[in-house]
C-alpha cells in the first residue's frame, strides 16, 4: 500500500534522487528549458517551484537555503538576479511541462520542462509583433502611383 507517500521516488536511493534533482534544477535555471521524462518533470516541478518562490526575497538566509538544494553557486546567482525579477509578480506556476511523445529507445514518455516567463511563443506579455493584413495596395504605393501619373500629365 502507498499510504502517505507524497512524492515519486523514481526508483532511486535518496542521495541519488537529491543529486539528480539538484543537477536538473541547475540545468533548468541555466538553460531555461530541458527535456526529460514526464515522471522526472513532474517531480522536478515540485522540487524547483519552492526554490523560485524563495528567490523572490533576496536575503542571505534565502540564498543559503536555495544553495543547500542546488549546490551550484552560478545557478543560485542566476536564479536570484535574473529569474526572480521576471517572476516577481507571478503568484506561482513558474514551470510549464509540455509532453513531447515517446522516446525511441525505450518508448518512455518524454516532456519538455521550461520556465514560463522565458517562452516567447506561449507568453502573451512577451515580445509580440503587430499582425498586419494584406488588403490590396498600401497607401504609400497608391500615393507614389498618383504622383507619377501627375508628373506624366505635366
Question: Main attributes?
Answer:
154 residues; alpha+beta; 3-stranded antiparallel sheet; 13% strand; elongated
Structural class estimated from helices and strands: alpha+beta
The count of helical stretches stands at 5
- Order of strands, main sheet, comes to 1-3-2
Task: Give the total of beta strands.
Answer: 3
Q: What form results from the Cα inertia axes?
A: elongated
N-to-C SSE series? HEHHHEEH
Identify the quaternary structure here.
single chain
Largest sheet, if any? 3 strands, antiparallel
Uncertain spans: none
Mean pLDDT: 88
Helix content: 40-55%
Termini separation: 95 Å
Task: Note down, in words, how this protein is organized.
The structure is a single chain. The mean pLDDT is 88. Helix 1 packs across helix 4. It is built from five helices and three strands; from the N terminus they run αβαααββα. The chain has helices spanning 14-31, 38-55, 60-70, 73-86, 139-153, and strands at residues 33-37, 95-102, 109-115. Strand 2 and strand 3 (109-115) form a beta hairpin. With 154 residues, the chain is α+β, with helices and mostly antiparallel strands. The radius of gyration is 25 Å and the shape is elongated. The termini are far apart.
Amino acid at each position: 500500500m502507498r499510504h502517505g507517500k507524497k512524492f515519486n521516488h523514481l526508483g532511486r536511493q535518496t542521495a541519488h534522487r537529491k543529486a539528480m534533482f539538484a543537477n536538473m534544477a541547475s540545468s533548468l535555471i541555466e538553460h531555461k528549458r530541458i527535456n526529460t521524462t514526464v515522471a522526472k518533470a513532474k517531480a522536478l516541478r515540485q522540487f524547483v517551484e519552492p526554490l523560485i518562490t524563495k528567490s523572490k526575497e533576496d536575503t542571505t538566509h534565502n540564498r543559503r537555503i536555495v544553495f543547500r538544494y542546488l549546490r551550484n553557486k552560478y545557478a543560485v546567482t542566476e536564479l536570484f538576479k535574473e529569474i526572480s525579477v521576471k517572476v516577481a509578480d507571478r503568484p506561482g506556476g513558474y514551470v510549464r511541462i509540455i509532453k513531447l511523445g515517446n522516446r525511441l529507445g525505450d518508448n518512455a514518455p518524454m516532456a519538455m520542462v521550461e520556465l514560463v516567463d522565458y517562452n516567447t511563443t506561449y507568453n502573451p506579455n512577451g515580445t509580440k509583433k503587430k499582425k498586419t493584413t494584406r488588403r490590396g495596395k498600401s497607401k504609400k504605393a497608391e500615393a507614389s502611383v498618383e504622383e507619377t501619373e501627375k508628373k506624366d500629365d505635366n
